[in-house]
Amino acid sequence: MAEAHQAVAFQFTITPEGIDLHLSYQALSQIYLSGLRSWKKRISRIKNRIIKGVYPASPSSWLFVVIAILATMYMQSDPSMGLIAKIREHLPLSLSLSAQGQTVLSVLLFSTLLWLSLILALRFCLKLLLSYHRWMFELHGRISTKTKVWATLVRLLSSRKPLLYSYQTSLPHLPVPSIKDTLERYLESVKPLLDVDGFQRMTRLAAEFEKSLGNRLQKYLKLKALWATNYVSDWWEEYVYLRSRSPIMVNSNYYGMDFLYVTPTSTQAARAGNTITALFLYRRCVFFSRIPGTVIPLCAAQCERMFNTTRTPGEETDVLQHWQDSEFVAVYHRGRYFRLWVYRAGRLLSPREIQYQIQRILDDPSPPSPGEDKLGALTAGNRTPWAQMRKQFFSSGVNKRSLDCIEKAAFFVTLDDQEEGMMGENPSVNLDRYAKSLLHGKCYDRWFDKSFSVVVYKNGKNGLNAEHSWADAPIVAHLWEFTLATDAFHLGYTADGNCKGEIEHSLPPPQRLSWDIPLQVSESLAVAQALADDVDCHVFPFREFGKGRIKKMKLSPDSFVQLALQLAYYRDRGTFCLTYEASMTRLFREGRTETVRSSSNESCAFVLALEAGEDREHCHKLLRKAAEKHQNLYRLAMTGSGIDRHLFCLYVVSKYLGVESPFLKEVLSEPWRLSTSQTPVQQMELFDLVNHPEFISLGGGFGPVADDGYGVSYIIMGEEMINFHVSCKHSCTETDSHKFGSQISQAMMDLMTLLNPDFKEATKANPDKQS
């Protein structure tokens, strides 16, 4: 109880002599310092809003304008052409100012209006410039004069170092493509996947849709585009993610892995200490808008809900809840939940102090309360039962208070009692088990509703599981890159594997959360367990070559991998399928993703020619033609000329209007049997892979989208490695993640051999490269 008494600022007792007041100066000091931190954050928030609001100008430019106007007035010149005098005439008579004072006030008002007008003009010019995307379609080394002029003007207008959100108001809105263009691109994408009769049928349905319902739906969509910041994002978040009633575990959430070859420390509490510290340092960068920017201005809206965010279940639709700040994390260990404060008296605890607090949790021998150990299974099962139970059992009392601690935490931490990673006598099998652990764990030892959950294993390995509705993988990848690099290279560890820093031993222990749980989670756990058991994961590093050799062949590494996936799928299933590759639309305000339909006429023609044994020169030409087509499709998707988001929004409008479209219904029901995504490496400067090549990230992965399909994620690390994550379902007899992984490796080798026949001989001469 000593800690509880320390938390009380004052106590009093009533005696015959009167009231005896006892002040706790330590507690008052804590309150004062915490309040001071809150005010500092408020002031910083206001400062950042001002800096962001006036970008591309600066707050100091206002003073420059004022001084310039005053100087010209002093020289008996009126740059306002009589407006300053007009302002002076309309000043309130009650102002008891001298004539000179009224003139100065009029100059200040005019200067401020002029300054604001210049900001709006600069912002409008920057928005026009950022609407130009033809630079993406130009060949490397053949940049047009128009693009060179464009790049110079953008640099001039954004010469001030931008903050994270500086470009938000200058980014263009996502354009609505024409119905005709979208339908033409759609029919082109499905032509290699349908027989003659099927394609004629879809062509007829598309023509009927364009002539009748399409134009009507398009008008409503254009009206929304005029009114909304982004005509896709809110509907995409609601209907694709939040309204889904199936489990988000495996179906929606995705994972990120630790380093492949190294573990900075084998001490679980120490790794947790540095990881938590690094994540809070990143949150500080987000708050102060100090995240390293990109060369290209991108929308940063998704970063706003990275921390202190939870997806709360509803009977019909879920809701994303975000809190402004949180000074603690929720921790799960051996069936028990804890609240761990990471701030004390307004300061972030040192990594060593957080390690000390984590060790207290690990050493706590108390057993879980009845029903507590598997409580997290509620977040892993179907959404409607979880919403009903939350309303019935967690809306008041001790359960609500404890649930609030989890949902309002900055993020969730699981201290796993298993050991994971590429280790032991069978590292490949252990990597697969590591992936499954991060994807679903035991189905009850993660809180899948949190924006992200960090998992720290007994042997010091870590990873994370991220909820998908609030942001897409590149945002989380950026966070995780920073965390791994900060942990290993900046915070570091002592020689004995502990965190650095001093410990304040008077820290109150982590708070154990209390529950009164009269319910059983067996139904949700059974649903989640069946889903988890059905997932087949395979993770493998492809070491034979990487982007360095691919670029020497003058091909895009992403296009190369996508063509290898097409070849591998054809060899695996004997046919082609609708292929999903995620691309981002963050060149536009509040942009998220668009689909690249990687299975094209050109890619199918190449695969068929290669498998038919046609001559090498012909296959070589078809390969380059297919790669060029893929790059063009990717660029179209990034610049707002994709297919699927437009058709999706037209479908949503039709539902609102209560009209049926056979064309849209069929398009939206087509399964994506091959769903792919590249995990981008965005901060290579944080990783010195030349001097520390062992610090290779494994990337991350996701579950299969279709029951009879594959999910494939890949990360292109450095110059000589590509890591693949393959998933499918055991329940489908036609899919096998290990077999498909072997097909991918062989397809990669065959494509490189086609481009460079000497590669095969070089590989034979160096067999260790393949081991």
UniProtKB/TrEMBL annotation:
SUPFAM superfamilies: CoA-dependent acyltransferases. Pathway: Lipid metabolism; fatty acid beta-oxidation. It is a multi-pass membrane protein. Residues 1-47 form the Carnitine O-palmitoyltransferase N-terminal domain. GO terms for biological process: carnitine metabolic process; fatty acid beta-oxidation; long-chain fatty acid transport. GO terms for cellular component: mitochondrial outer membrane. InterPro entries: Carn_acyl_trans, CAT-like_dom_sf, Cho/carn_acyl_trans, Cho/carn_acyl_trans_2, CPT_N. The chain crosses the membrane at residues 50-74, 104-126. This is carnitine O-palmitoyltransferase.
